[in-house]
Amino acid sequence: MHMSECLHKDSIGPVSFYDKKLTLGKDGFVLESGKSLPEVSVRYETYGTLNEDKSNAIWVCSPLTADAHVAGWYKPDDKHVGWWDSLIGSGKAVDTDKYFVVCSNVLGGCKGTTGPASIDPRTGMPYGSTFPTITIGDMVHAQKQLADELGIRHFYCVIGGSMGGFQAMKWAIFYPELIDRVILIATSPGFSAQALGFEIVGRDAITQDPNYNNGDYYDKQIPAAGLANARKLAHITYLSAKGMEARFTRNDIRIEHPEKFYSGSSLETYLDHQGTKFVERFDANSYLHIAHATDTFDLATEYGSLENAFKNVKATFLNVNLSTDWLFPPDQSRQITEALLNDGKVVTSLELDTQFGHDGFLIECGALGMAVSRFLGGHLGEVKTTGTPAFHSHKDISIIDSMIPAGARILDLGAGDGLLIDTLWNKKKVTGVGVEKNFTNILGCIERDVPVIEKKLSLKTLESFADNSFDYAVFNRTLPEVRNQRLMLREIMRIAKHAIITFPNFGSWEMRWALCYHGRMPKSPEFPYEWYETPNIHCFTYRDFVRLTEAEHLEIEKIISLNEHGLSKVLTKLGLVNLGTERVVAMVKKA
Amino acid sequence: MHMSECLHKDSIGPVSFYDKKLTLGKDGFVLESGKSLPEVSVRYETYGTLNEDKSNAIWVCSPLTADAHVAGWYKPDDKHVGWWDSLIGSGKAVDTDKYFVVCSNVLGGCKGTTGPASIDPRTGMPYGSTFPTITIGDMVHAQKQLADELGIRHFYCVIGGSMGGFQAMKWAIFYPELIDRVILIATSPGFSAQALGFEIVGRDAITQDPNYNNGDYYDKQIPAAGLANARKLAHITYLSAKGMEARFTRNDIRIEHPEKFYSGSSLETYLDHQGTKFVERFDANSYLHIAHATDTFDLATEYGSLENAFKNVKATFLNVNLSTDWLFPPDQSRQITEALLNDGKVVTSLELDTQFGHDGFLIECGALGMAVSRFLGGHLGEVKTTGTPAFHSHKDISIIDSMIPAGARILDLGAGDGLLIDTLWNKKKVTGVGVEKNFTNILGCIERDVPVIEKKLSLKTLESFADNSFDYAVFNRTLPEVRNQRLMLREIMRIAKHAIITFPNFGSWEMRWALCYHGRMPKSPEFPYEWYETPNIHCFTYRDFVRLTEAEHLEIEKIISLNEHGLSKVLTKLGLVNLGTERVVAMVKKA
């Protein structure tokens, strides 16, 4: 993966690593397999200061081939800063002025923590082929013991991207009481079959290398060719197809080339470089063991279902997927969000647009940083929410408020910057989750601590919500924006017991007058857009809506006519409700 | 890849292969590299009968690891029929009752045609490391000479999927005068950088195998492990992520497994099987040489641009991509269509929905067969076009006809079953291409020989069309179906000199009356849909349209009011055009 190559001057500065030999009982460090390691040493780094009540610790879980060096630099002439230096530091998203940040090298690694290349104290020789199978759970257990020994008993947040996300989920599952927040980035509940396929091929490339020798090569030639080829393959999966297309160029090589089977692409030297660099910095046995831990990580299989895996977690989650990531594809990442939602947990989910594929989690620190900062209670970067001021206005909110009882759980479809849920939470402990498509609005939601799912409104959006998982679904002015209102109403009545729908009435006298008199598509305060660019793709009248509820056998529990114009008020008083209503607020349920 | 496993009884029946030693001059078979082979023998199969005027030959180009055995079986107890048996045979899409079908094994292969494992007559030993670099062009040259020697001088069609598509494109470029039709399936103008990356890794897996010995292994152990691993990797790229997810299952293997680093997925044994099977049937040197020919195939680099590559082709093209194919992704396949269109060539392009990824081209023979059959002039399978009868009615067509001069080139946006272009072609040699999203409508277009591009109407759809590449763009009732009419008009005026737009008038008296009197979203013969499911997402009035053309500085060259109702006719006569017009036909151009 690309190391973030920020300037040293923006970095937290000089840092050190520490090695801690864990204090173990006579059974040593017992692994999930039942086997044990006689001793475990963990390399880690810390930045910032643990505060007096020990409430400001943030634990960073490292991805597959990274290390404990997540921020800062060791020597002024270091070519690289830590691998997440762009996210972690003074005044950055994970602000080391406020938080005590810890990152350790994983168990099984080759960057200071006990792994296959470490000396087995029982033999005085490297473990090699005798190193036992390890799991993501084992990695987390080693980290937990390190935390204990560092005096950290509570975690403001646990953060992990990629395989780091696997660990972060295990943290939340193992120690639900200790963790306030979890941030997952570009991760999934386990590898897809496709990703696993690449893992298998990469693994075989190493184990088929004649120098591999079942893992006992430390006093001989290392399996460099196999390891390099495994890395080349893995590296391709870290990039996006689009990003690769833009980056590499082709030569016309219809004439014979000195290097046999040379493809004629600049990708050749790039991949060679990636392979060579990796062989210099990583041990093949560590790669095999850590990769195997990720291969066998599969929460749904291990716990029976993903919902089951998360049923006891207590943390609030931020789950971020990357648009062009196909190693941990958005759809898989969303499964985490969906399971948490179906468990009634608190989760916010973002869809980060990037062309960098999986590597984006190390590169896209701008948007990601703003979201992470807000999730941690900070305010990094300027955010202008774009919600039209009229929307989720105080009037809307007070009417919707009047319909929703204290303690209800709501789904706000088109949540804007989260004002509705925020207000109802503060007033009467209404919980809920928003669905919103606009990223800056979503940052607004995060800033308000309103859980929000980044999605466009569509039938597909709602598929993943469990039956009756909400008391109220709210469409505040968003129902005209979907493709099929009839199917949408059906879907909503599957998910929520009640629906509260506000919509501008295309049947008001103003609309009728504008169309009849001017012969043009009407505009009004309720319909402020030009016809060719309105988000309202299916407008409808008060009467249309009532007829549709009848056809769908829904009971209108309450229906409120809103109007501002004097004539509208008069018409409504005269009983000409469809004419007099500028906007409708209706609450419906299954009849 | 999966071999099609149709029942023998549907198959063409027993077939034979033939070997032909090409007649070569003293320079032997000269390759594009300048090197030559002293002799070339080609294995091929033929089905059906070459007719008297030799006009019914269909040439099938084979993909990477296939052979000449494309249909039928050799012995009644054969486990498999030919690799495209589902598409080729008596009464099938490529109907051997009508056509004389030929398929040969490619140059460099190991299935009967001269390749690295063949005996070099100069040494009496297999070529091995001395086999020269070959190209896709070389493969086609060998096929052309075979065709010459078989007495075939004209090709009703050349068909190729995957690498077969590479050859088919070269056929069309090398021999433009000889080929009537080209069918390309799941192919591209060259590998994407991502696909090339996998090729590089697979190649290295073979060449790093210690048994490879620079290709001289025929009297020793073969590089089986490397070849198997290359195949495993390639096989993953033939499947879709979704298809793999559905197919393979996971075991919970947190306890140590006898096989070290076993991933716990049924994918392991599947991939092992694919690798082993491949090693039994394919030669590593052939794989390397043929793969290298595909790696270095890149029409845009070779000819300067894709448009340049195709500028002299004369054939009519059918270009089919597969929705989940990520080895030859739809976007890349579309580049072929776009280049052909920008060259003014005749091309129909299909987007075939499949969950089988690239392998779909061997599996999805239902829909594909119906399209191929029609493109070849057949009628395989029943097709019911879904176009509402009112659309592209004879009245519409006669009005549009009156606006378009003979010989013009038109783009029909929402082409239905192609009636408009078909009619105008027959009447006055108007050429053009349709854009249509419905597959059965598209089959209707193909049956009428109307070139059509399968796409939804959107701004993005039109991006790829070159400036001023059409005389007329026609939106027959489809403009209200797009998201932003203003931007759409701009985009259309970039592509075409004139636009002809027909749309239902939301400002007609009927609409106004329905909204005003009933207070409901209006329905009429021109607006036949319920408000919640109408495809018209931005309705507009006659006047709205005129205002928009003014704002966009377009000149309305002609505008026609259509009406059926008596009152509409009266109102129009009274000069109340917006009230009296039920439907508008307008022709506009840049002012």
UniProtKB/TrEMBL annotation, chains A, B:
Residues 83-348 form the AB hydrolase-1 domain. It catalyses: L-homoserine + acetyl-CoA = O-acetyl-L-homoserine + CoA. Gene3D superfamilies: 1.10.1740.110, alpha/beta hydrolase, Vaccinia Virus protein VP39. One of its GO terms (molecular function) is homoserine O-acetyltransferase activity. The active site is at residues 162, 325, 358. One of its GO terms (cellular component) is cytoplasm. Belongs to the AB hydrolase superfamily. MetX family. It is found in: Cytoplasm. The gene is metXA. Substrate binds at residues 231, 359. Pfam families: Abhydrolase_1, MetW. This is Homoserine O-acetyltransferase. Transfers an acetyl group from acetyl-CoA to L-homoserine, forming acetyl-L-homoserine. Keywords: Acyltransferase, Amino-acid biosynthesis, Cytoplasm, Methionine biosynthesis, Transferase. GO terms for biological process: homoserine metabolic process; methionine biosynthetic process.
